[in-house]
Structures are given as structure tokens and as C-alpha cells.
Amino acid sequence: MTSAVLPPGLAENPNLGRWVSFPAPGKVTISTGKVEIGQGVLTAMMQLAAEELDVAVARIAIQSGDTDLTPNEGFTAGSQSIQFGGVALRSACAEVRALFLRHAATVLGCATSELAVQDGGVLRNGTPTGQDYWTLATAVDLAAARATGSASPKPVADHTVVGRSAARLDLPAKVFGEAVFIHDMMLDGMWHARVVRQPGRGAKLASIDEAAIRRAARGPIEFVRHGDFLAIVGQQEAAVDAAGTAAPDHVTWQGVEPISSVQQEAAWLLQRPAIDRRVGAPEPHASPRNRQRHEATYTRGHLGHASIAPSCGLALYRDGHLTVWTHSQGVYPLRAALAQSLALDPAVISVRHVQGPGCYGHNGADDAAGDAAIIAARLPGRAIRVRWRRAEEFGFEPVSPAMVVKVAAVLDDAGRPADWTAEIWSGTHSARPGSGNLLGAEALPNPPPAPPPADVPDANGGGATRNADPLYDIPAKRIIHHLVPETPVRTSALRGLGAMPNVFAIESFLDELAERARQDPVQFRLAQLADPRARRVVERVARMAAWQAGLPAGTGRGRGIGFARYKNRAAYAAVVADLEVAETIRLLRIWCAADAGLVVNPDGAANQLEGGIIQSASWVLKEQVRFADGGVSSLDWDGYPVLRFSEVPEIEIEFVAADTDVPLGVGEATAGPTAAAIGNAVSHALGTRIRELPMTRERIMATLLAG
After folding, report:
1. Structure confidence by residue, pLDDT tens digits, 381-426
2. With contact defined as beta carbons under 8 Å apart, do 431 and 486 qualify?
3. Interior CA angle at 33 toward 28 and 36, to 5°?
4. Do residue 342 and residue 234 come from a single domain?
5. Strands (DSSP E) along 73-126, which ranges?
6. Number of domains in the chain
7. What pTM value is reported for the model?
8. pLDDT at residue 3 tops 60
9. Alpha helices of 441-553 — where are they, by DSSP H?
10. Quick check: 41 and 76 in contact, CB under 8 A?
11. Does one domain contain both 501 and 564?
């Protein structure tokens, strides 16, 4: 890939010394703004660097997500870590290699074409020269070097590291208890803290029975109050936990708006004020005569992130400088939010990523870090650790918004859609720092102003509209987006944003049209797919699953297919699901074919596709945030069940080879196709369509009784 145009991440951070350094003989340090949240991205980054620098992976150390040390690459989100962050790092390493070879040619008095690099050493016509990166490093000032886009990364045919499966570099230490997760961090003189939460937006503190809370603590504690922000701090974590558990019974609030169970259902959105916009083809002036029309409505409730552990954050404010440790997906945006919330100059704030429980999307990590920073700013010199509880995570994290997707199509003579409309109702999918406020900051005396209602721009993949534009060859397509600005709880990003419910709707609708046309679902899709890469993944997954047309419906055994290209610009994925429906839905087997472009680490990429399949299956079959008693009621694993290990089916993944050196994001590619494949398989098994998620036993029984 030769281009004078720099990848966006490198264009925004063109200083090569920000990406690569040679700190000691035989050692290489690379930096990335992307962070490890369980996806194995740092392993793939090291493979890319090893490939372009021609050094062994074992020589490389990586630093990530540190506002003092690493490039500003925004959020680790949107399946963009390798597609954009990896491409930027690869280009930076290619430039560094070229820069060193040019300097080596000057030192050796030869042409650069005579030189090559082998494990960091410079060869001339295949013979060692005695020069290497480290002997040359003192004369090559990377801190002053800027990327130009003139260096070409290696051709795919020359790869020896990229494209080979590599074991996750971070797993051994985690498995054997050597790694330090943020929950395990210990700072000198550290104090523990728990925040007494506002029960709702805008709630005001009315009274605090401090004596009762102190009695419950059975240990020394202090109170930190700033406006309506209230925290309990102490050096004994057990005392702070006990006080925090008792506090809600001894603190009263004013201005609490109750939440009802009615608001947990997606249909509630249809009655709310919305900000409307249209995208795509104009509305037809009149419906064509003698043309059939089909429409259907699909819904999904709110989803939690269900991270394996609750969020945690640490902060220390000393000598006018604030340092924050966090498992946030965006250290630079978090720094900006902290600066705004605390009225500090961003230059006096350092935000450092530490690995946590993992999360795809915006859970409580930023808020926990914000809590710690607010308290630390009130208690200079004390290191503050805030560890959320499970109920706090489920009850106060931003959740993925409920969605309603109505699809309507005018059909041609073959029963295929000739005119397509997707109408979507949803809250925002983006309240991350930078587009929303930190939870603790909203309780401060002068909170930052609420940002205007907005969703992820279409240029960035869209939020509620993500993947709402079908990849199929439909002459006229449009999207009507109803952004509902006021939702009962905070909503923000979760893996795939609106892609899962949109692909579920599109692919379910395609199956319904295939049934109307008495055509096989696979052939019906292929007849409307001109994109050869899309066709290949659909054809491959059909072969993998030994797809058979015309299997009878309503037997209790079902098979379904789903397809999408994530954001219509990342990886392609097609999924087939086999299942049984009796008292519950039992997944039997799932197949997936994917085109991810250049695959850096095949094992890592396959794990990402599998993880997306499993999480999507859990969303489809089990997950929904519930409301009762004035707030979120699904506060533990009983109230918010997820798929169990025993319920995970056998999964088979195959990559469709692509003649390209461009990697495509895979982390969120399978969520939509999996939801659609399971939904279509359930409908095949039952002989009737289920259009509401999750597909619980109660919902299935209600649908069968209604039919």
C-alpha cells in the first residue's frame, strides 16, 4: 500500500518518536493510543511493529493509553483498533525503518537498495555491517522526525509475522496471577471511597444521618460532600463498604423522578418527543400500482454491558497535578472531561490506562475514574480508590438504548424489495466523555452544561442508524431516524451500537420476503448481492453448514442465516445457526464465514468473531435491563442473566481470503448476523415469526398463543 496520504491516526500524531523508540540496546518500545480491553489488540500491534521494523517480537515492549506517553487516538471503539490504529502504527514503523536505512546508507557509503534489516541489524547485500537500530539511534532524532507517507509497508507476500497466529502476550501473567488489574493496584497511603448515588438525574440531597452511617461502618470514615456529590472515604475498605451499603437508608433526596416498568419496553419510545431526520432516497410520490408491500416492526430492550467485574478508578491530586488510573477506552477524552468537570488545565492531568474487567462500549469505567478524581481533588495528597459494587454497575452505568426498527418495502415482480424504508426510534448511542458528562460531575455545584442531544454522526458509522442501510441491491433506500433525547436512564455505546437491532431487522425481513416469494433464504440473498466479497462469505457459510433448501418449518428444529458488513465498511460476516426450541431455545451449532481483509493474528481475529457470536446470542436469548421501584431493578446476575458456559454451542469460524493489505475491523462484525441467524432459526423452528428481543420463554409463549 503506497500512498502519500497519511493514515488518520498518524496524520493527527505525525511525530515518529511518539510511536517508536529504541531505549536500550536490543530493545524497542512502541506506543499506541488504543488499549487492551480483552480483544488481544496489543498482541496484534506488536506483530505489526515486528513485521515492519524487522525485529523479533520478544524485543518489543508496548505502552498504550497514557496521556503522557502515547499518541491521542481517541477511543478504542468501533472495531477500529487495527483497521485504523494498527494501520497508523504500521505506517509509522515503516517510516522509522526507512529513516534508519537512509542514515545507515550514509554511514556505510552505499545505496539504500543494498541494505536490509534482520532482527534490528543492518545487512549489506546479505552481510552484517555491524550497524543496527541501536548503534544508529543516537544520530537519528525520532523526536524531531515527522511522518511523510513516503515509506511503503511491506507487501503481503513478504510477511513473516503478520498473518500467523500468535498467542496473546498478556494472558500468561493474567492466568497465573502475575498481572496487576486496576482492582489490584495499591498506592502508598491509599484511601478507599464509595459514592452515595443520586437516585435520579437532578436529585438534590435533603438530609444525611451521619451518625447512623458511622455506626454501620464500625470503623473510621469521613464524608466528602461537594454540592449534591456525597462520598464516604476511609483507610479500611471494609468500613467504607459497610458505610456505603447502609448509606441509602440514611440519606434522603428531593426531586426524584420515578421510573416505571412500562418504560423498559421499547414500544414506550414511540410515544416520546423525538428529533427527526431523513437519509437517503426521497419518498416516492405515489405507491406503484399493482405492487405488493410488506412491513414489519422489530424491537429490542435496553442492554447492560455486564462486565465480568464492576468498574474501578484511582486518583491522586498532589502538588497541583492530578493523576488518574482507569480502564477507560479513551484516556484523552476522559482527560478533557475531567478538566472540564474540575476546572483544571488538561496539562496538569495525566490519565493512564490499566487493564480491567473488559468491556465493549461505555460502561462505568469513566464514571468510576471521575468519582476518584472528584474526591482526590477535595483531599489533596491522598490516593483515592473507588470500586463500584455490582448493583452500582448495573444500576448506574450507561446502558445500550432500547430500539424500535420498522421496515417497509415495495416489492418487484420477483418479490424482492424495490423501495426500502427503515424507520428507527432510539435514544443516543453516545454519551462518552466528550459527548456526555461524567456521572459524578452532574452532582457538583456547577456541573458542566448538558451537551445538546446528538448521536454518533453517520460519517463515523452512525449510532442508531449503524448498518440500517442494507448492503443489498435495492434501487431506492432511505432511513428515517427518530432520536429520542429523553430516556429513563442514561444510554450510550455498547458493542456494535445500533448495528445489532438493525441487522436483526433487515435480515429477519429478508427471510420474511423469501418466505413470501417461496424462495430459499440463501438464494434470495445472493440474487440481490452484487458485492463479490459479500457473496463469497454467504456462499462459504452455506457450504460450511451444508445448507439445505426447503427444510420443513414448525418442527421444533430450526436453521437460519444472517449477513452484514459491519458499518458497510469493515469486516464482512455471514452466520448460520442451528437450534432446537422446546421449553427453552437450545443452540446446537453456529458457523461463521468472514472476510476481514488482512488478518494480522488469525487466532486473535477468530476469537473476536467467536466472542461476538456468544455475546449476541446472550443478548438475543436472555438480556434486558429491567425497571421497577423507581429505577433499574436488574441489579445482579439473577435479575440480569447472561448466557452460561454450558449454553455455548459449538462454533466454527473460517476466513475468506482477501487479496488486500488493508485490515478490516472484526470485533463487532458478528453481533448483527448472529442475532439475525438465531432469530430466523427460531422462526423456522416454530413456524411463526418472533420480532421482539430478547426471545424469552414468556415472549415465545405469548407469540404462539397470539398466533
Report:
1. 999 999 999 999 999 999 999 999 999 999 999 999 999 999 999 9
2. no
3. 85
4. yes
5. 115-118, 121-124
6. 3
7. 0.95
8. no
9. 499-516, 521-526, 532-544
10. yes
11. yes
Beta bridge partners of 299: 404, 692
* Res 1 pLDDT > 50: no
Please indicate, yes or no, whether residues 317 and 407 belong to a single structural domain of this protein: no
| φ, ψ of residue 499 in degrees (nearest 5) | -60, -45
The C-alpha cell that represents 374 in the structure block: 472528584
SS3 call for 396? helix
> What's the CATH code of the domain at 232?
3.30.365.10
* First vs last C-alpha separation in the chain: 56
Distance (Å, rounded) from C-alpha 136 to C-alpha 123?
A: 13
Q: Are residues 84 and 100 in the same domain?
A: yes
Residues 6+ apart with CB under 8 A from 152: 1, 2, 94
Measured distance CA(365)–CA(381) in Å, rounded:
23
**What grid cell was written down for 265?**
419496553
Distance from C-alpha of 483 to C-alpha of 426, rounded to nearest angstrom: 6
- Burial (Cβ within 10 Å: 0-12, 13-18, ≥19) of residue 5: exposed
* pLDDT over 80 (residue 41): yes
Nearest CA to 567 among 79, 9, 34, 40?
79
Distance CA 134, CA 143 (A): 15
- What pLDDT band is residue 645 in, cutting at 50, 70 and 90? very high
pLDDT by residue (tens digit) across 257-289? 888 889 999 999 999 999 999 999 998 876 667
Calculate mean pLDDT across residues 104-129. 97
Inter-CA distances, 61 with 170, 255, 601, Å: 12, 52, 18
Report pLDDT digits (tens) over 312-347: 999 999 999 999 999 999 999 999 999 999 999 999
In a domain, 520, yes or no: yes
What's the pLDDT tens digit per position in 174-225? Answer: 888 887 899 999 999 999 999 999 998 889 999 999 999 999 999 999 999 9
Task: Please report the pLDDT score of residue 109 as a whole number.
Answer: 96
Note the pLDDT of residue 4: 67
Q: Are residues 506 and 555 in the same domain?
A: yes
Task: Say yes or no: 114 and 207 in one domain.
Answer: no
Q: Are residues 628 and 665 in the same domain?
A: yes
Q: Cβ distance 405 to 297 under 8 Å?
A: yes
What percentage of the chain reaches a pLDDT higher than 90? 88
> What is the C-alpha separation between 310 and 388, in angstroms, rounded?
6
Q: Which residues contact 503 (CB under 8 A, 6 or more apart)?
A: 467, 562, 564, 671, 672, 673, 675, 676
Per the structure, the complete domain to which residue 419 belongs is given by: 403-429+464-706
Name the strand (E) or helix (H) holding 365: helix 365-378
Same domain membership, residue 410 and residue 372: no
Q: In this structure, are residues 194 and 232 in contact, taking their beta carbons and an 8 Å threshold?
A: yes
Assess whether the previous peptide bond of 694 is cis (omega < 30° from 0).
yes
Express each pLDDT in 426-485 by its tens digit.
999 999 998 888 999 999 998 988 889 999 999 999 999 999 999 999 999 999 999 999
The four Cα atoms 502, 503, 509, 511 give a dihedral, to 10 degrees, of -170
Element (H, E) at 403: strand 403-411
Per DSSP, what are the bridge partners of residue 481?
277, 424
Integer Cα distance of 20 and 107 in angstroms: 22
User: How many other CB atoms sit within 10 Å of the CB of residue 211?
Assistant: 9
